[in-house]
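Researcher: First entry.
Model:
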Amino acid sequence: MKKLFLLLFISFTQIGYSQTPVSGGIFANTVWTAANSPYLLTGPIVVFPGNTLTIEPGVIVKVQFKGYNTGLMSYIELRGNMVANGTSTMPIKFEAELNTTDYTWRGIEIKSKQGGQFFGSNFEFNNSFNGISSDKIYLDTLSFNNCIFKHNNYAINLAGNIKLNNCTFINNGAAMAAMISFGGVTATNCNFQNNGVCFTTLANPLMVSNSQFVGGRTAIMQCRGLVENCSFSGLEVAIENCYGLEIKNCMLQQNGTAVLGANQTTMEGNVVIANNLGLDITGPCVIVNNDFNANQVGVKVSGMFEPGQTIQNFTENRLCFNSVYNLENGSDLNLGLEKNCFCLQDSAAIEALIYDGYDDFTRGLINFATYDTACVILLKSYKKVQITTAIANEPIEKQFLIYPNPASDEFWIKPSKAAAIDFIELYSMDGKLVKVLQPFKVGSASDAFQFNVLGLNQGIYMLKIQVGNASYVKKMIIE
């Protein structure tokens, strides 16, 4: 009897830990079933054109570790199709054979030039080096719903427009790899925890709403678009060096720097609290109706403005109880900030928390005002310097209409009024001048002129328009 029990125990133990080893080519439609799960990748798998690998809900795909050299790592290559649709109760999982936070396989590689496609939702994707990647630009939109990405070097490495809904990214090197040539992201109700960077250098706009970013190096870097109703906490830099980004109704708290290198940025209705640095401004921006509260430095204006530039609009903000400075002027700009509240009625106390030309004569001066405790009623204005507003300080969107953007063969530049333009230059992202138009005059606001970019490589360029002492810079995408 004891021997029979032992045999039954061994048998059930083997069944409980059985797995289906897989590798090699898939030359016919194939289904990986929950009954045969887990599947163990012992080597690369290639799904050949015209065939589909379908993975049932609840399937676990484990990958043997072959070494840290990516040439030895296993992968799934899609020259055909993969369908991996789990459910909320039975998600599909891709993970290392053994529990680890390391990269143990290359990931899923979509050979879209051969017709490969990936369709997936409700899956968990872990421990890969390249994540889900492709060999060409996707001109359509790829959607990921209810997905989890953990411990990947890159989670998603696709050049295309991506939609993320209710997805979670944890401990990845990059949630989205840089998409310099083409692609943007729309993310809704997503959660990002302790990633190196979440979104970086997207060619097309980033649209993020109702999402949380917690921990890690940087949430958003070098992107344009719209971020609204999001929270950022525990990051070294929450939003970094973004040009043309709108940040609305967000909470940015307990970060090293909340917003670094803001240029042509709009911030409206945000709460920026308990950061080392709340906001660093390096170019013309619209900063309206924000709370900069209990940071070390609330707002810093860096000395990196082009001649003739200034902050476009800085009004109705509350800069209160920041421990080192409410506002630090690192530029030589004179700023009229009388339409902002510093939550104090003592002008000397306000002055003590403003760093400007009174503290360092190389800096510009800052005018301010006192308000009542509700920050509603203006009590008194304190003018250190007369501020003059020139038309050159208008944002580029008001000075020049530039369309289309992205452009393919040419784009058009239409000024808002007659102007004598000194030159127009187009630079690559590495700073190389690739095209220039010499001085000319525009007779009226109805004039528009063509800028030919036929033959230029796809990518991101910087367009510079020089009018007198004023420079206008705009990011252009050539596709």
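Researcher: Second entry.
Model:
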Amino acid sequence: MRSLLLSFFLIAFCLSAQAQFWNEYSTGFPTPSTGISRFDIVDENVVWGIGYNGINPSNNIQQFSKSSDGGLTWTNGNFTLGDVGLGIGDITAIDDQIAFIAVHARSESQTGGVWKTEDGGSIWTKVTQTEFTAAASFPNVIQFYDNGDGVVIGDPVNGKWEIYRSADFGSTFTELNPANIRAPLDNETGYLAKKHVVDNSIWFTTSKGRIFHSIDRGVNWNVYPSPISDFGGADTFGDLSFSDTNKGVLQTNAGVVYSTVNAGVTWNQITTSGSGSPYGDNIAYIPGTSSIVSVGSDPAAAGSSYSLDDGVSWTNIDSEQHVDVAFFNLTTGFSGGFTVTSDDSGVFKYSSNILTENDIAFAKAISFYPNPTKNLINISGYDSIMNLELINLSGQTVKVLEPMEKVSLEGVQSGMYLLKITTNQGTETLPIIKE
């Protein structure tokens, strides 16, 4: 993971801006400058996050914090692994008691793997059925589901991705058949916690700018190119998030945003606008909506912002350092901060209705299908539409459409467009593909 350097003099408490979107709570970490990231939100009440040293992330710490009341109060704890030098890469939880972590070696004498707790984090026990014993073994991503299915994904070893699956909450693991996933490219690796999960679909990203995608919880995998060369390099990196199993967004460290409506097979750059802009670190769709939150931790360009129209127009929220962001639904979301004191800071909780009002109102008013479409679009709630425009990705209006139950795209070239829909509830700009 990239280094994140906390600069105390750049931490400004923007109360007026945060009151509109974020409220800050204590992670309970005892040491100032401890950050929290790699959230796993189980439900509206339970969320876990991993701690790290914000002054010098290369100084390893083995700490976590969790909440069981929707992020109002947090309890910190230690990963007791028997070796304080092991690194914590990713976390996935079943509830407030059962959780799994992907652990990687940080020296030649260590061996990583998977650890599990069943008592809320007091005791962590290594799951011995997964190997991760080769010199190149490096677990990056782990995901478990509430029926016991799980998958842990590591870097390539001997020319194949080291991936294990479980169907019994980690009691046993089976190595993935290499025939079920494309072979790695030369020197290709994954990255810590670089994943996204929607229902049975899971994605992970690599150092070669590739996106691996499974629709069956990690049994079979496809791979797609992306618009960037590396998802975690020193100069180039990016993050992706999905609203559903098809619609997603990719953000680069330069704040460039791309969208997909086919699960990541193809991507198109979005021409962004608005009073704010996306940041360069992490990005999160609010599941099932057109709303996105972007955050940045670079002291020179720290802050958070949101979009209500799939990344086209942006509104700035604040200029705080935000090191991670994750949303469970329209009312439950978190962003990682840094501990200043152990009883008043460290984690941001979404505490607004900015995202809720727009998406609920619009969802009640308008929906359209199919997408992609060969020609006709069926629109429900068409009588509520005041204006309907088809816009290309350069922001130019291609066609002004008459609001009707069936709208024709005849004469429009194949490609990806944005359908700008204006109603008395507001305006949404949604991606659509003309086949």
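Model: Note on the second entry: Confidence is low (pLDDT under 50) at residues 1-19.
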